[in-house]
Amino acid sequence: MPTLPRRLLDARPSWSGHPLLAAFLVSTLSLWSCSQTPPASIAAPANPGDATASIRFDGLAYRGGVVAVANPNGAEAGAEILRRGGNAVDAAVAIAYALNVVEPQSAGIGGGGFMMIHRAATGDTVIVDSRETAPAAATPDLFVGVPEPSRQGVAVGVPGMVRGTDLALHRYGTRSLARVLEPAIRLAEGGFAATPDFLANTNCNNPNSRALNSPAVAEYFCPGGKAREPGSWVTNPSLAHTLRLIAQHGADCFYRLLPDTGCDIALGIVTGQRFSRELPLAGVPTPGKGGGMTLADLEAYQPVVRAPIEGRYRGYRIQAMPPPSSGGLTVLQILGMLERFPLGDTGAGFGFGAPQTLNVMADAMRLAFADRAVWMGDADFVPVPSRGLLAPAYLAPRAALLQPGVRAPDAVVVAADPRPFEVPGTAPGTRLPVADPVTGPEKGTTHFSVIDPWGNWVSYTNTIEAAYGIGVFAAYQDASGEGRDFGFLLNNELTDFNLAPSINPYTAGPGYNDIAPGKRPRSSMSPLMLFTPDGQPLAAYGSPGGPTIISAVLNVTLNLIDHRMTPQQAIDAPRLSASSTSGYVLLEPAFPQEVLEAMSDLGYNLVPGVVGAVQAVLFDPETGHQYGAADGRREGTVIGLP
Ligand code: GLU
Q1: How far is CA 573 from CA 75, 148, 270, 560, in A?
Q2: What is the pLDDT of residue 444?
Q3: Which residue has the least CA distance to atom 1 on ligand 1?
């Protein structure tokens, strides 16, 4: 196993002396999708009071609002807005734009995300979905024959962040877009000290570095071909200019070419996504492929306000991300399968990090990922059986496949057919022997969480997909040949679709995550909120990390509820991730050697790695105190106000 990064080692807690969960609520599987009536079989938690009592709050307590962000400058931008009386949504939007400047490799206006908002006044939760869409010209075979699609313009989806944040501010915020853009503009213009994460993936000496994919991006991240020094001063005047245009003229200035007002960002996006680069395909140099996005695609982009998917785990209520993300359904499926095990009980052979605990976690993840590959996609385009996938009667036989002490054989780790549990009376289909669809690797993204003094919450995961997206800035040359650069990276979100046309093995129709015009690629992003059994908000969190997002959020949930860790312990603890049906399991290296050996003996193919980076805010309903917990796997920063 390679050694842990220093920050992770420092953050590693000691596991001795963790209090055990004395008694377990062995409740029936109890999950449902909130947009529907709960099935009659859902049992009330055996003792709702126990569930509330078992979250262990500690650390610095606040009342004036808390932000937890993967970058100190981003956190400060949010805190500034809270200090000036803005609410959680105002602060979250300020953070999102500031991160575009200081953590540009992860997210920004060239991409999109999911902003989960819980409002104190109404007690409801909504998600502003600013996920990118496929342009009108997109076809299911878009990437066939394309070398490394995630580095080509053809991977760029129509960006959603600007209209999404604008909508969020108008409906749920109290400040103007211009006002909350101020910290980001200041950072882009005045500059900031390069942090280790800003430099971590630039790999300036490696010609395959994504940060070197195009000359302008290479020059920004590796000026003169050299890596920047940690702490060196970085500015981005082009981005400052872009943000000023948006502040002055509003979101339309991003989506429409309006020469009279100087709004030409849309031209930069459409021109930038025409980027193509010859790269090897199966060892043979192959021409790249530019994108077919038009100005009309940009103009047509609309964010969508969605209701969360809701479930319960050991009595706690959970609100999670619905399609087009697979995040909420997959997290709730895994929890639903694990609920029959006393995961916190060391006396029963479980407990944190016990091989038996990791064994059932890994297999529950494998089973859920089998369903994910077949049944999850953009529900505005395909009939995702959300209710069936979470139905206790569907999950029970799948949970029965989990046998502590045995690695579930590959032959049983396959998608089943949830449709009879979606629509009673539907006959189950026969599974055709077709290959699983192929999707690309994912690894960009940032998550942050905010609570304000009034008890409004935001849990926001934002992304340009891979680190640096396609590695190209929005830019164009004007008629005189003068270059115009907008200083933000274009996403490669369309590689979250199946990379080639596929077949759903139960419907024999196209794969649910195949590309179609206007469709949103399936995501793993899982902004989540945890509530007491009677609905009082307790925590908001989420993570970056592609499919390991789902695992990171799951691990932290188990740590809080089953292992009774404090929020910071729950985040620091080493994590496990299985994000395919194979026995390939990512384990963070802080697990002891004997645990690794026991898992290996069960037949898992163990790979060391880092699983996500969770930033959380929390609230203790008993005391009225607010808390934050940040992840040292990135530059997690908590700022709280008294
Ligand atoms: N594009 C990915 C998704 O939406 C996230 C990428 C990542 O977290 O690395 O699931």
Answers
A1: 23, 35, 44, 11
A2: 76
A3: 465
